[in-house]
């Protein structure tokens, strides 16, 4: 019986539009990085770049912008204009929830 329950849950994740979209986005390069950067309030390129460099990690500005646009389209982030050409991003309630779940997931893996 548990096999059917698990299969149903998996089917739901893979076929329900919003969950499938989030799953697809999380599979992309640096998606988790960008979501976690948002979680710690580093939704502006300069702040994100600084954080990544401090930790000897890389993230291109193009990838950062692409992922933030995707996060925004999924309702996990919201953009605010700095000037006509620049934006910064903040997490939404849903983005906060997903980031917390990711942190819990990685905590459990570390045990």
Regions with little confidence, pLDDT below 50 for 5+ residues: none
How would you state the average pLDDT, rounded?
92
Provide the β-strand percentage band: 5-15%
> Helical segment tally?
6
Radius of gyration: 16 Å
Largest sheet: 2 strands, antiparallel
Descriptive report:
The protein is mainly alpha-helical and 111 residues long. 67% of the residues lie in helices and 9% in strands. It has six helices and two strands, in the order αααααββα. The protein has a two-stranded antiparallel ribbon. A hairpin with a 5-residue loop joins β1 and β2. α1 crosses α2 and α3 packs across α6. It is globular. It starts with a helix and ends with a helix.
Q: Short description, anyone?
A:
This protein is mostly helical. It contains six helices and two strands. The model has no long low-confidence stretch (mean pLDDT 92).
Features:
two-stranded antiparallel ribbon; mainly alpha
Secondary-structure blueprint of this entry?
Blueprint: H1 2-15, H2 17-26, H3 31-39, H4 45-54, H5 61-73, E1 77-81, E2 87-91, H6 93-110
Antiparallel strand pairs: 1-2
Helix pairs in contact: 1-2, 3-6
